[in-house]
């Protein structure tokens, strides 16, 4: 026998049976604990939910820029900035939100709306992890290329 399993032959038969039952129970308990730990590790965390509206929110992700080709009928190519999130988020619409605001879930990509006339502070940070603060909006037109929009009020590198 191995060193971790002492010889039970010196014990009375009832004691040997009790020790064997304890070993089986310990093995089952360990399997149960490991199984639960595996389930917890495999279960994704609940998505963080944001509210639309005037209160600013902060989101962290990789800054990207996408250019849509020229549209049929003569529209110029369109370049927009996006935030590719670390994990999916959701947005909830309340009664005081704009009529077109829709509840969203499983969102990984957010279109950024820089302030009109503001200097381009986004381009130097392309492909970097950034924290963006701003007002969250629901997409509402064909010009919007992601389910959520974030009007940029502030930007920090890192996250």
TrEMBL record:
Domain spans labelled DUF4431: 110-154
One Pfam match: DUF4431
Name the UniProt record assigns to this protein: DUF4431 domain-containing protein
Lineage: Bacteria, Pseudomonadati, Pseudomonadota, Betaproteobacteria, Burkholderiales
